[in-house]
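Sample intake sheet
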Amino acid sequence: MKKSQVNYSLYLVTDRKLLGDRDLCKTIEDAIKGGVTLVQLREKNTTTNGFINIATNVKKITNKYNIPLIINDRIDVALAIDADGVHVGPDDMSIDMARKLLGQDKIIGASTNCVKEALEAESQGADYLGVGAMFPTKTKNNTEDVSIDELRNIKKSVNIPIVAIGGVNEKNASSVIAAGIDGIAVVSAILGKEDVFQASKGLRNLV
């Protein structure tokens, strides 16, 4: 899939802690069937080899449905499995260095929470921005809150897609979508639900 064809509207970020005894690949497949358009695999507490094995299996699912697979933080894992791209935060490898390693055809996303950071990330070659945290979230505790007004300002300031992240769910998604962004990134709003397919379908209808 060409970068220009990527649909950011319903962006799923994984967190296996929310799954209980459910299978990750089966859950991701159900979410994709429900309407998820992009998957970011986030594994904070596993070995490199373990991450590669998980990513390899997830990629079989995303390839089956022609859905891009983004690896969180780990450039080495993305290279090892030929993922569609990576997402980097402020404490990860720089966008410039990631681009040198991955090449021009891979997707690189960056986390930002203000216009200044957004402009810097765009100038360094980011393909899209994850902006947040928009609302209180239990899945990440080192985030700064971003207002709807700031989200709107970021969207107006850059020419690359914007995805709102952080506590976004079926109750508040409409307020961030109204800012004119390109999509919402969710974790517990899908993975924390008993029926992942229906949760994804409901959110996709909103966006």
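Comment: The chain has a mean pLDDT of 95. Strands lie at 10-13, 38-41, 69-72, 85-88, 107-112, 128-131, 162-165, 183-186.
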